[in-house]
Amino acid sequence: MALVLAPRVSDSARARAWIVEARAIVVFSGAGLSAESGIPTFREAQTGWWARFDPERLASPRGWEDDAALVWAWYVSRMARVREAMPNAGHRALAHTAYAGKLSLVTQNVDDLHERAGCRDVVHLHGELFAHRCSACGKGHADVALPSSRAVPERLEPPGCTQCGGRIRPGVVWFGENLPATAWERAAAMTAACDLMLVVGTSGVVQPAARLPVLAKRHGARIIEVNPQASALTDLADLHIAATAATALPILLDA
Ligand code: APR
Fold this sequence. Notes:
The chain is of the alpha/beta class. The protein has two domains: 7-38 and 87-126 and 178-255, Rossmann fold; 40-84 and 131-172, SIR2/SIRT2 'Small Domain'. Helices cover 35% and strands 11% of the residues. The protein has helices at 9-21, 32-35, 55-58, 61-84, 89-99, 113-117, 181-193, 211-218, 245-252, and strands at residues 25-29, 103-107, 123-124, 133-134, 168-169, 196-200, 222-226, 239-241. It has a six-stranded parallel sheet, with helices on both faces. Strands 4-5 form a two-stranded antiparallel sheet. Strand 2 (103-107), helix 6 and strand 3 (123-124) form a beta-alpha-beta unit. The radius of gyration is 18 Å and the shape is elongated. It binds adenosine-5-diphosphoribose. Adenosine-5-diphosphoribose is lined by residues 30-32, 35-36, 41-43, 108, 126, 201-203, 205-206, 226-229, 231, 244-245.
């Protein structure tokens, strides 16, 4: 039975009041938002036979050069797992409010659960799991066939690009790579213009993404954090809701 933490009533009331009076809300989400959809966070994904590898080796240009088949197999297993997952109540609550035009989304997550819950125009700072592209010519390849999550071998040769024959790679940002310039610029502009930031399900340790809540605060925004644990951003937050995203967000967003 999973531990379900409900937010304290006083904290929820205060957070709800801030959400109602906010002019522009930015949600900054991390892997914890997808945890209740069964998607392990980046580090938890190193369970089982992945535990033998350094995560930053699997998600880095060096790892890809050293053993593209190992890296591709790891991403294919993550893609298959996301395909089999469903958006949770937290994703749906955000989509409902975003629909009302009150809230915009910046995510570190590479899954498509925000979009499958109904959110549009999500800013993906770390790329997108299904936006495969050729590692040589950069051509996009959305049509890569995927096995089911239970059928992914430990190593799988990446498919070849139909345009140049180069290896197709995942459309995510690897450690040591720059964030997509447009995504960062849009996220920074939205952050500077918001008067409330909802920080949901992130440890706040990966830069430069974790700078966004600091930027929001510097521009006078209030910060509400939703996370059952404390994070590197908890001290910055004006209010920490110690609850899970799927429990807290429907309450806070009145969805
Ligand atoms: N609801 C809300 N928060 C949760 C939940 C939940 N159900 N379950 C876990 N969390 C919190 C954890 O307490 C933790 O603080 O989510 C956070 C997950 O932290 P990380 O695993 O570090 O994920 P994230 O912060 O998104 O990592 C940022 O680092 O690994 C890279 O590129 C990867 O985008 C990722 C980036």
